[in-house]
Design goal:
The protein is of the alpha+beta class and 377 residues long. It is built from eleven helices and 15 strands. The two termini are 15 Å apart.
């Protein structure tokens, strides 16, 4: 099955979770609330979990899957460091052929350019030329002093090295920066999550997401010592912790064609077999995110996954896999209609599979991963 992209739209029912804490005010944790416009055009305030949190969940599942697939990881990526390959910059500068070339050859060229400029050469001239140059006028000399040759790092080679050296950086992206020589090179993530938004109240006003605050006491000392002291309250930390429950709308898109793709040269820097291993691991990680939504305070508030329904769409062409927000009650019908229109443009290129349970959804993703095949060499 040739795949260029995959999208997932689902409604997930999570009870008693704390995945979306926004911060603490005094002794009370605040849960994240967002303003949305519902399918009837009415404004609503609902509970929500950020897409950053769900991408963090996916990355946590993806790292061991890439290791099992024998895909390379930078030392930062292997331990879940958010900087990923940036943590290895020093080693990268010492080992990457592209950077060695840049540091030696390009800076050598710069030294020659500076010497040539002092003799009146312009920055567009080849400093390695042995031809005699005519004497520059006073105006040209003054202009030459003001100009400085601009050093452009070989970004396309550096990006190719990043993709081949770290599969996690390839899939989930990063921003590599170096003050010298002025490098700022971004790798956009293959994975895109939207906000996981709680469904607003129904027509009768019944809320579908809710948050309650629960009273907790943390003893600074053992309970026996705390009960026998003169100032018991002074040795206790009293706080309120939220727990949220509700039906949440989730959307996710995977640009599988970009796995291993150098965004500058538009050529693949990774072999097709390795790209397919990475794509398979990514789809499995998405399935694992539904099975186990990791995150904040799971040690005592592990989310109850009550239900999951949705639709998975795939595309084999440059036309993207469609997404329709599950905030709309008819999102699956609309997805089917959009797939029909896209297949009218490119026959049989787009598919959609509905699922009504978590098990069916995982089965659909597992089947896609089993058959995955990427285009290109």
């Amino acid at each position: 099955m040739i795949l260029n992209s995959l999208s997932l739209c689902a409604r997930v029912t999570l009870d008693m979770h704390s995945l979306n804490n926004e911060g603490t005010e005094g002794n009370q944790q605040q849960t994240r609330m967002v303003h949305i416009i519902d399918q009837k055009g009415q404004r609503a305030v609902v509970n929500a979990v950020s897409g950053d949190m769900f991408k963090h969940m996916l990355v946590e599942h993806l790292i061991p899957l890439l290791q099992e697939s024998k895909q390379p990881l930078s030392s930062g990526a292997a331990v879940g460091d958010a900087d990923r390959i940036n943590r290895d910059l020093l080693g990268l500068m010492q080992t990457t052929k592209a950077l060695k070339c840049f540091c030696k050859e390009e800076l050598s060229w710069l030294d020659q350019a500076v010497k040539s400029l002092s003799k009146g050469a312009t920055e567009t001239e080849d400093p390695g030329s042995s031809d005699e140059e005519p004497e520059a006028t006073d105006e040209e000399k003054e202009e030459g002093k003001q100009k400085k040759p601009k050093v452009v790092p070989p970004s396309q080679h550096i990006l190719a090295s990043m993709l081949s050296m770290c599969a996690l950086t390839d899939i989930t992206g990063t921003l590599m920066t170096m003050k010298k020589p002025g490098l700022s090179l971004g790798r956009k993530s293959v994975v895109e999550f939207g906000w996981v938004v709680g469904l607003p109240a129904q027509g009768d006003g019944t809320p579908l997401t809710t948050t309650e605050q629960y009273f907790h006491v943390k003893y600074a000392e053992g309970r026996a010592a705390a009960t026998g002291g003169e100032s018991v309250a002074g040795r206790q930390a009293i706080f309120h912790r939220p727990a949220s429950s509700g039906v949440y709308a989730l959307i996710c898109n995977l640009d599988l064609y970009r796995v291993g793709l150098n965004d500058i040269t538009r050529k693949y820097a990774v072999s097709k077999s390795d790209r397919e291993k990475r794509a398979k691991a990514l789809i499995h990680a998405l399935a694992a995110t539904l099975v186990k939504p990791t995150g904040a305070q799971r040690n005592t508030q592990n989310p109850h996954i009550v239900a999951c329904e949705g639709i998975v769409a795939t595309s084999a062409t440059s036309l993207p896999s469609p997404t329709v927000s599950p905030l709309n009650d008819n999102y699956r019908d609309q997805m089917d209609q959009v797939v029909g229109v896209l297949n009218g443009i490119a026959p049989n290129a787009t598919t959609a599979v509905r699922f009504d349970t978590l098990a069916d959804g995982i089965r659909a993703l597992a089947e896609i991963a089993r058959q995955v095949e990427l285009s290109g060499e």
